[in-house]
C-alpha cells in the first residue's frame, strides 16, 4: 500500500490532519493516538483521492472473496439449509468465520463480534493472503486488548449475504453458477439464525459477550432475543452506534445508494460476475459508497478538514474538484475494488427492514424482553445513527448501564476511531458484567 505525501493528492495544500496507519474498511484502526477519518480498506494517509493522472488497474467485476482465493485465517462451517423469512429456502449455507483464543472447558468465555456493513471477520491480525488489510478492531480485540484473546474465545463470522466467504450473491449456487440476481432477500433475523447454527457447530451454548456496531449492532439486539429462544444464552452485550429500528431518515439515505448500484449498466440486474475487469457495476457502487460515507462523517470534520480547498492543481471553476470531492471519489473507488455490488444491495436492504419490535409488540416491548446485561454506546456527532437512537435502546433494556457517549469530530465513524474512549469503556464493562449466570 502506498501512502500519499503530506500535501495530499496532486500536491494539494496540506490539510492539518494527523497521519494514520492503514488497516481495513467500514472499520479502520488508526495508529495509537492518531486521529483519522480513514475506514477499513483505505490506504491513504489523508483519505484524499490519488491523482487523476495516476493510472489504475481496471476495477474487477466484484471484489468478493471467492472459492479458490486464499482462505487466510478464515474457517468454514457448513450449517445446512435455511428457510428464510421471505419464504425462500437457501440450501447449503456456509459460514466463513475467524476465531482467537481458546474456548474454556465450561464454555464460559465465548465472545461474539459482529461486523458492520462493509466489514468482515478479520477483526484482528495482520494483512496477508486472503486479507487485504489488517484487522479492523485490532485495538479492541487481541492479546492484552480490552477484549483480551488470552482470556476470551472470540468468534467473528462473516454475515449472511455478504461477500467474504459466508454464503452470499457471489457464492456458487447448487447449479454451479453464482447466485447473482437469484439470491433471496435476507433479514437481520435470518442472519442471526445462521449465526446461531454456527454457535451450535462450535459447541457454544452461551455467549459471555456479544458486541457490534452499526449494522453489527442490529444483529446484537436480535441475538439478545433469538439466541436464548434457540438455547444459546447471551449474558451481556454491547450495542454501539446503532438502532433498535431503522428510521425514515436512515431509509432515505439508503434509497439513492441502492438506486445508484441498480442504475449502473454494468450491474446487469445482478448478473455481472462474468464481466471483464472495468465492465462491472463499479461506478454505481462507488457512488453509493460516496453517499454513505458522507453520512459516516460529521459536518464539523468535513468543514474543518477540507472546507473549500481545491484538490491540488485542480480548479473547481473549470471542471476541477474540491478536496472533499476527491476524498469521496477515493473512498468510492476503494470500496468498488474490495466489495461486491450485490452484497451491498442485499445487506443494505437487510438494514432497511431491521425492526426489533416487529411481531413483538413494538420496540419498547421487545427491548423490555432482553435479559442480558447491556452496554450501549453512542457517538455525539453521529448523523447516521443518532444518539437518540442509542438512548432509546439504553432506556428500554432493563439490565442496561446508563448510556455512554463518545465525544468525537468523526461522526458515525467515531466507533472506529475513538479507541482511547471506547477501549476503557468496553474493558470496564467486561470486567464488571460478563459473567455466565449461575
UniProtKB/TrEMBL annotation:
Record carries keyword Cytoplasm: yes
Q: Indicate whether Endoplasmic reticulum appears among the record's keywords.
A: no
Q: Which GO terms describe its biological process?
A: homoserine metabolic process; methionine biosynthetic process
Q: What is its EC number?
A: 2.3.1.31
Q: Where does substrate bind?
A: 289, 413
- Family from the record: Belongs to the AB hydrolase superfamily. MetX family.
State the protein's purpose: Transfers an acetyl group from acetyl-CoA to L-homoserine, forming acetyl-L-homoserine.
Q: Which HAMAP family match?
A: MetX_acyltransf (MF_00296)
Protein's name in the database? Homoserine O-acetyltransferase
Q: Which organism is it from?
A: Cellulosimicrobium funkei
Could you read off the lineage of the organism from its UniProt record? Bacteria, Bacillati, Actinomycetota, Actinomycetes, Micrococcales
**Record gene name:** metXA
Amino acid at each position: 500500500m502506498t501512502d500519499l505525501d503530506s500535501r495530499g493528492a496532486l500536491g494539494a495544500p496540506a490539510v492539518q490532519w494527523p497521519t494514520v496507519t492503514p488497516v481495513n474498511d467500514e472499520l479502520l484502526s488508526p495508529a495509537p493516538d492518531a486521529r483519522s477519518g480513514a475506514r477499513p480498506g483505505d490506504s491513504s494517509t489523508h483519505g484524499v483521492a490519488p491523482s487523476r493522472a495516476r493510472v489504475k488497474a481496471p476495477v474487477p467485476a466484484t471484489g468478493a472473496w471467492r472459492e479458490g482465493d486464499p482462505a487466510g485465517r478464515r474457517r468454514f462451517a457448513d450449517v445446512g439449509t435455511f428457510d428464510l423469512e421471505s419464504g425462500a429456502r437457501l440450501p447449503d449455507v456456509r459460514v466463513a468465520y475467524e476465531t482467537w483464543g481458546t474456548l474454556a472447558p465450561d464454555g464460559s468465555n465465548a465472545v461474539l463480534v459482529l461486523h458492520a456493513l462493509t466489514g468482515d471477520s478479520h477483526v484482528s491480525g495482520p494483512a496477508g493472503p486472503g486479507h487485504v488489510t489488517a484487522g479492523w478492531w485490532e485495538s479492541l480485540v487481541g492479546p492484552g486488548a480490552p477484549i483480551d484473546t488470552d482470556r476470551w474465545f472470540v468468534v467473528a463470522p462473516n454475515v449472511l449475504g455478504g461477500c467474504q466467504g459466508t454464503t452470499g450473491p457471489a457464492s456458487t449456487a447448487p447449479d454451479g453458477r453464482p447466485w447473482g440476481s437469484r439470491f433471496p432477500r435476507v433479514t437481520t433475523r435470518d442472519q442471526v439464525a445462521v449465526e446461531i447454527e454456527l454457535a451450535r457447530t462450535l459447541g457454544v451454548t452461551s455467549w459471555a459477550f456479544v458486541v457490534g456496531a452499526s449494522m453489527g449492532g442490529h444483529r446484537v439486539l436480535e441475538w439478545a432475543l433469538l439466541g436464548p429462544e434457540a438455547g444459546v444464552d447471551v449474558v451481556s452485550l454491547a450495542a454501539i452506534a446503532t438502532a433498535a429500528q431503522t428510521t425514515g431518515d436512515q431509509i432515505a439515505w439508503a434509497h439513492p445508494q441502492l438506486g445508484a448500484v441498480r442504475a449502473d449498466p454494468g450491474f446487469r440486474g445482478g448478473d455481472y460476475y462474468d464481466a471483464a475487469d472495468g465492465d462491472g457495476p463499479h461506478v454505481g457502487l462507488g457512488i453509493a459508497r460516496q453517499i454513505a460515507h458522507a453520512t459516516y462523517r460529521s459536518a464539523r470534520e468535513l468543514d474543518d478538514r477540507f472546507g473549500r480547498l481545491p484538490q491540488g492543481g485542480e480548479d473547481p471553476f473549470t471542471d476541477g474538484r474540491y478536496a472533499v470531492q476527491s476524498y469521496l471519489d477515493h473512498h468510492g473507488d476503494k470500496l468498488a475494488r474490495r466489495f461486491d455490488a450485490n452484497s451491498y444491495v442485499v445487506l443494505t436492504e437487510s438494514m432497511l427492514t431491521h425492526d426489533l419490535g416487529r411481531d413483538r409488540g413494538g420496540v419498547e416491548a421487545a427491548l423490555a424482553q432482553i435479559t442480558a446485561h447491556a452496554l450501549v454506546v453512542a457517538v455525539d456527532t453521529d448523523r447516521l445513527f443518532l444518539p437518540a437512537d442509542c438512548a432509546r435502546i439504553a432506556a428500554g433494556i432493563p439490565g442496561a448501564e446508563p448510556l455512554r457517549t463518545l465525544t468525537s469530530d468523526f461522526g458515525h465513524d467515531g466507533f472506529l476511531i475513538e479507541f482511547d474512549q471506547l477501549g476503557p469503556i468496553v474493558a470496564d464493562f467486561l470486567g464488571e458484567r460478563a459473567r455466565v449466570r449461575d
